[in-house]
Hints:
Elements: H1 4-15, H2 26-48, H3 53-65, H4 69-77, H5 88-99, H6 107-119, H7 131-159, H8 164-167, H9 179-186, H10 199-207, H11 216-224, H12 227-232, H13 239-256
Helix pairs in contact: 2-3, 2-7, 3-6, 3-7, 4-5, 5-6, 6-7, 11-13
Amino acid sequence: MQLLNPKKHFERYCRQFCQCDASLPEPLALKAQHCRRVAAEIREMSSELHWPAHEQDLAQAAGLLHDIGRFSQFAEFGTVSDDASVDHGERGAVVLQKAGWLADWDSEDLSAILTAVRYHNRLRVPATVRGEALALLRLVRDADKLDILRIVLDAIERDGFRELPSMLPHVRLEGPVSPQVIDDVSRGKCASLGSVQSLADFLLLQLAWVYDLNYPPAFRRFHDRHFVLRIMSHIDGDRRIHALGEGITHFVLNRSSVAQEPADHEGG
Length: 268
């Protein structure tokens, strides 16, 4: 199995959603770029983990296809909000099954890809996912989070994330961090999006994603891209919040230097 086949199908599938001027609607153009970056990132990380070449190909394909459900989601509902439409991970797995692009793949590889697409966006990984599928899913989740963090921070630093209300209508640009979010992060948990009320909440939620990372290359990237410092610079917080930032920094440094195995923590 080579990446050429899913890459060809991905690009062709994207073109089905182009507008009259042959360009994708902006939300889908951003999603397509995100998928390509995740594919490149996951290839690099799987190489650093010394995965066999076949597994690196599989990981790159999973990274490219993980958000394939976003396209029909937007076409049908006019949004990329799962809360206002459908679970895009589940939709993506259905799209891939119906399209038959991967029909000639080994059944175990196909199952792993579909599992990675279906569950990459879940708050928790189902306990039933194991073996090759779990390793792949964990790496896709790592690469996906790293790129989303980059997107969000770039948007904040560019224009204050003015498009946030259209992406998350219930989230205010102004306002302090909510006690519930502080409590969740203090306990080393990934807060639920339902607890988010402000941009500060959203940023602290994303900072807590570190507890759901799995592999040392992801922790190293989290550290090297200064995500803690960049996020904390946009949160007006008290001593407790700053202590959270310091604790997460130590957590990242510790995890980035361990053996090349997935971290064993609640995020899974």
